[in-house]
Structures are given as structure tokens and as C-alpha cells.
Amino acid sequence: MTSPTGALLAFSNALADTVEAAGRAVVAVDTHARSTPSGVLWREGVVVTADHLLKRDDEITVTLHDGRTVAATLAGRDPGTDLAVLRLADAPAPEVPFGDAQLLKVGHLALALARPGEHGLSASLGTVCNVGGPWRTWRGGQIDRLIRLDLSLFPGFSGGALVDTEGRIVGINTAALSRSTGIAIPAATVDRVVDQLLATGRVARGYLGIGMQPVRLPDSLRATLNLPGTGAVIVVNLEADAPAERAGVLLGDVFIGIDGHTVGDTEEVLALLTPERVGKSVPVQIVRGGQLVEVSVTVGERLRRGT
């Protein structure tokens, strides 16, 4: 029978072995700045790191697990998800398995791995303290699943790996998307952003050029027009020559649907302005003067902060 001390030693050794194995994919990113992020060798020749700590676009180097330092070039940034992608001319494919963050549950043990500058591989052990569904960051990025962490993200840990109890990398850690806890960006989100940044150098975000406020639809109007929901959004501002104005949207129009999806608040409108819809004409269902109206809006690309 294994003694309590023996069980604890076995658990400790297993953790150390997991850190060592998964740490082969964790790198140090050097931009010759005071604060530097960690990164993860996500694919052959591709490193993912934290955008908010990547202070420059050139003269970037990456130190691999074996101590080699190689030059890197910036493929693209997505501040919305706090991810940046680097290309490396001489870096192998990661030797670490990747997992599905959808399998994480509240209370699961998790490891945050990092290489904060000259300090070598570092680890922080904690738990998953909260999980949720898809969410939109305060920077406008779409994250496939909310994962809050009850562990310490020390300086330089942003951009490092979240590792589950089977030694699989399931996400990228960041301290920039929440003021209260560390956040893990799920591997599915990272894959999507990496694909877009490698292809175009940016993640396009939809833009209508309107100011919106949520409103509650009167029961009498809902009954008359046979509307499915109680909420909608009203247009309170129109930017000149923006997509909405060019499509004929008017001040006071009430949006109830976009591209076949009902919208009950501003977050639902923003969530539908996905990269896939940029440049495409989408039908918008509107209540105007007590009548249902449909207009076609060609979704623009938001280049600056705005809607």
C-alpha cells in the first residue's frame, strides 16, 4: 500500500515530468524591452505570444527550450484576443500534444508554463475557477470559451501555455483581458487567429458605422408584427458615408435581426460582425415607423476602435 508520503512524492514527480515535457514547446520572446512575454511553439516555424507585451515589430528573437536563440519576424497581431504570431526560419514542429479546452471543468488542476526572459522554464499550479461560453473581450475579440484561472501569472507568464493534467497544451495565458483573474485563450481560438494572421496579417472586424442602444419592444408592437423577441437595438447615431448610412439606415431605426439572426442587445449585433461577413452584403431586419423593413448592408472593416 502506498504511504501518504509516497503518494505525495509520486504526484510531485508527475507534475515535474509534465512541466518538463510540455515546456519543450514554451519559448522566451525577446524584443529588447523591459517587459517580455513568453510564447508557445504552436506549429512548425510558428510561435504564438501575447500581443500586449510585444512592444516592437522588428528585431525580435526567440529562445527555444534547448537554449538556441533564433530570429523571428512578426506575421501579425490581434489586439482583440491579445495574440500575436511570429514566424521562425529555423524551429521544429512542437513535440507536445495539444488538447481541447472544452473539456476543462471548474476545479480541474491546471499548469501555467512560461519562460520569462533569462529565468528559464517556470511553472505555476492552480485550478480552473470559472468556465463559460463564447464571449467578446473588451478589445473586441471573439473568444470561443471563457476560462478563468486561479493561479499566479507572474511577470512574463502572459503568452505562455496552459497545460491540463494529461500534459496537453489547451490554451495561451494572458493577464490583459481581465482585471480580476488570469484568462486562458482556448486552443480553438488560437488556431483560428493563427490561420487568419498567417493568411492576411490581421483579423478583420466588421463595422457598420452606427451608435446603438438596447430597447425593449412594446408588447403591442410585437403582437402586431409577430416579432419573436422582446429586445432590440435602436440606432442613435449614424456615421457619414459609413456602411449603414450608404445602405439607407435611418436614425431611430430599430434593428431586430441581422443575416437571419435575431438581435436583442448591442453585444449580439457586435458578435455578428465577424471577419467572414466583412465585405459581404447582409440583410438587416428593421422596425421603422411601426413597419417591418429590410435593407442590405455591406459590412465594412473596422480599422479603428468603433462599431
CATH class of the largest domain: Mainly Beta
Number of strands: 22
- Gyration radius, to the nearest Å? 23 Å
Percent helix, as a range, is 10-25%
The largest sheet has its strands arranged as 1-2-3-6-5-4
Q: Strand percentage, roughly?
A: 35-45%
CATH architecture classification name of the largest domain = Beta Barrel
Fold-level CATH name of the largest domain: Thrombin, subunit H
Keywords: Hydrolase, Protease
InterPro entries: Chloro_Bact_Ser_Proteases, PDZ, PDZ_sf, Peptidase_S1_PA, Peptidase_S1C
Domain PDZ: 197-290
Protein name: Serine protease
Main traits of this protein?
38% strand; 307 residues; 22 strands; Pdz3 Domain; Serine protease; 2 domains; alpha+beta; Thrombin, subunit H; six-stranded antiparallel β-barrel
